[in-house]
Design brief:
The chain contains 14 helices and 14 strands. By secondary structure, the chain is of the alpha/beta class. The strands form four sheets. Strands 1, 2, 8, 9, 13 and 14 form a six-stranded mixed β-sheet that branches. The two termini are 33 Å apart.
Length: 411
């Protein structure tokens, strides 16, 4: 998984950087709605970069022998960082934080109100409640949307401000933005180690709010725009709770940009919109074609990948003290950059005694990947056998006899 994520980062980083720049510099030229729509490039490029291709599996007919000796004499167990667990811990932490924010939001004291009490027509399936814990409207829920309003919403804001703010939340509801926000949060959790992911997430949410404002104010007059701007300022000033994942009113810099955008609205030329769509389509298409071209030639009997670096497995301390010998057979893949991936234990003798040190060593091995048509190819289903021996190996101690690469680990 880690290796796959690493392979995606170049494409994702380029797309995220482009979208961040567009949101910051080109929103007046392209318009907020176009910039927001262009964020669809991110999942499309991810799909284009992972179109089905011919994975290469090794069917070895020769046996390679390597002797791996232990250089250390203190029987210390090799300690290495398992980056998959580090990545998983970070992803779980972010998703748990988002879930906790959502849970806190749903636990707020709420009083249902009838849509007829508000100054705008709202969908019948939209649940509306008030709560004293908020100072600005929040739309929450995925399957069943709920609109949460401050309990003083009608007294704090004028009828015009109420209408425009509710229309803003209604755009979110009709556009299913909460689903897109969830997908963005999942992508952030998956790529949390990439600093651009955090900047891109904030830029995406900013684009989303600006696009909603543009939709709400497209027919508004100057007086209504001023009134709406004052409502945004009031929300930012009186915010008591920072539901940063869900509320667009909690960051003053974001609110400032929204107000500036309202003040500087200008006509968007259709030619710029068409050009941006054409360029983004060309980019995604080129990425897909490049990915397909990379694996045009199907390899039936590829050559063996060449090992360039091996980290010697450490003999477990307890096994050495008990004079235990054994073997481990591992299956693994070789990625395009030559690192190992998808390591699994096929068999071991004795069970589980040497598995941990065998996996820890194999995770650090590096290969020169097979090159086909000038491109590195991912190889799958390779096997290796590590024989742990206190002294000279003898028959009957291996996990199984097989025409696979054998590596002898001596104590």
């Amino acid at each position: 998984m880690i290796n796959w994520l690493w392979e995606q980062q170049l494409v994702l980083s380029l797309v995220m950087l482009l979208l961040i720049v567009l949101e910051a510099k080109a929103i007046h030229t392209l318009g907020p709605k176009t910039v927001y729509a262009l964020w669809s490039m991110l999942p499309l490029c991810l799909i284009a970069n992972n179109l089905p291709n011919d994975l290469v599996s090794i069917n070895q007919t020769s046996m390679y022998h390597y002797l791996v000796t232990l250089n250390s004499t203190d029987n210390a167990v090799n300690v290495s960082v398992n980056w998959q667990w580090v990545w998983l811990a970070g992803a779980v932490y972010i998703l748990a934080g988002a879930a906790r924010s959502q849970y806190k939001l749903m636990q707020l004291p709420q009083t249902p109100i009838a849509p007829a009490q508000l100054n705008i027509e709202l969908p019948a399936n939209l649940i509306i409640s008030t709560t004293p814990a908020l100072t600005s409207p929040i739309l929450t829920g995925l399957v069943k949307s709920k609109l949460l309003l401050p309990d003083n919403f009608q007294s704090q804001f004028t009828p015009c401000q109420q209408r425009l703010m509710l229309a803003h939340e209604l755009v979110h509801h009709n556009r299913k933005d909460n689903i897109y926000n969830l997908l963005a949060m999942v992508l952030l959790a998956v790529c949390w180690f990439n600093p651009l992911s955090w900047i891109a997430y904030r830029s995406f949410r900013q684009s989303q709010e600006l696009a909603c404002d543009a939709d709400v104010l497209k027919q508004a007059n100057t007086s209504e725009k001023i009134s709406y701007s004052k409502a945004l300022v009031s929300c930012a000033e009186h915010t008591l709770h920072r539901f940063s994942i869900y509320s667009p009113y909690t960051r003053s810099n974001n609110m400032k940009k929204r107000i500036q955008r309202i003040q500087t609205t200008k006509h968007i030329k259709p030619a710029f919109i068409g050009l941006s769509i054409a360029i983004s389509s060309l980019f995604v298409g080129s990425l897909a074609v490049a990915n397909i071209a990379e694996t045009t030639h199907k390899v039936s009997q590829p050559s063996m990948a060449i090992p360039i670096m091996r980290v010697e497995p450490k003999y477990p301390v307890q096994a050495a003290q008990d004079n235990i010998e054994g073997s481990v057979i591992l299956q693994f893949d070789i990625t395009k950059n030559g690192s190992t991936d998808n390591i699994t234990v096929l068999d071991s003798f004795p069970k589980s005694v040497f598995n941990k040190t065998a996996i820890a060593a194999l995770e650090q091995w590096q290969y020169k990947p097979r090159i086909q048509g000038g491109k590195a190819q991912r190889q799958t289903g390779l096997t290796v056998q590590l024989d742990y021996r206190m002294d000279k190996p003898y028959d009957g101690q291996t996990a199984k006899t097989s025409t696979i690469e054998k590596i002898k680990v001596q104590h």
